[in-house]
Amino acid sequence: MLSKKQLKPSITVCGFEAEIDGKKKVKGIVKEAKQAAKEYDEAIQQGHGAYLLEEELQDIFQCSIGNITAGQTIAIRITYVTELKHDTESENLVPDVVSYTYKTDYYLKLAITCGMTSVIQSIESPFHHISVELNIDSNPNVSKVTLAEQITYLEKDFILVVKSLGLDQPR
């Protein structure tokens, strides 16, 4: 279920999907925030698996997952489209005080396909170790980015700096 709080013009969620143990897939439906939260709580109380994706701030999402059984594997896939900001437009957020446990058996996995209007020269992340694959399908305008380390949460904003030819040209 997707919570429709206040969709920003800079991002559009195209899909939300939960895959349970590599077999069963649950697809999200956009609903008003209160209704989505109510249905999520009802599903939890009835003992069903439940998933809720909410946009907390612009481009920042929180995913709640309820009633996972021991040994169960849940893969969450969020598909969205957004306009990439120029590096001078980036704003770092001040994180809330949150405590995390370091003892987990789950990890965060990010797989990003970056398509530009011209040749991608490089992609970097100032706070995270990433792996970059340039020239996807022999297209120099497309690259794939993944995390190069196993982490359970992001301590800082995940920022990608993409250098591409002709970014200063009108388009």
Automatic annotation (TrEMBL):
Domain called VIT: residue spans: 1-82
Annotated PROSITE patterns: VIT (PS51468)
One Pfam family it belongs to: VIT
Protein name (record): 24204_t:CDS:1
Naturally occurring in which organism (per UniProt): Dentiscutata erythropus
